[in-house]
């Protein structure tokens, strides 16, 4: 799928969740809201993991090149 399709699906999901949970107050809307919250938590943890992984690789690279220069 292209990025545009994923973005459109995300927007449709968000609107459906908003309508079902806040306007109609259905159980399906509550479930979708819980699913959205879990996806947000996974995205935040994944972003932190990628940042730490990149920082460690950069630290090792800098340490290795500093030893070569000296």
Percent range for β-strand residues: under 5%
**Helix proportion range:** over 70%
The major β-sheet equals: none
Average pLDDT, all residues: 91
SS element count, helices: 2
- Listing every helix as H and every strand as E from the N terminus to the C terminus, the arrangement reads HH
How many strand elements?
0
Shape: elongated
Spans of at least 5 consecutive residues with low confidence: none
N-to-C CA distance: 49 Å
Question: What's the Cα radius of gyration?
Answer: 21 Å
* Structural category: mainly alpha
Transmembrane segments: 35-56
Keywords: Membrane, Transmembrane, Transmembrane helix
Structure in words:
With 70 residues, this protein is mainly alpha-helical. The chain has 2 helices and no strands. The chain has helices at 3-23, 27-69. The protein is elongated and about 65 Å long.
Give a topology summary.
Layout: H1 3-23, H2 27-69
Observed structural traits:
mainly alpha, 91% helix
């Amino acid at each position: 799928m292209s990025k545009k399709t994923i973005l459109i699906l995300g927007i449709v999901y968000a609107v459906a969740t908003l309508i079902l949970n806040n306007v109609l107050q259905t159980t399906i809307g509550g479930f979708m809201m819980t699913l959205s919250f879990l996806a947000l938590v996974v995205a935040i943890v994944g972003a932190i993991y990628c940042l730490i992984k990149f920082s460690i690789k950069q630290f090792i690279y800098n340490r290795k090149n500093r030893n070569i220069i000296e």
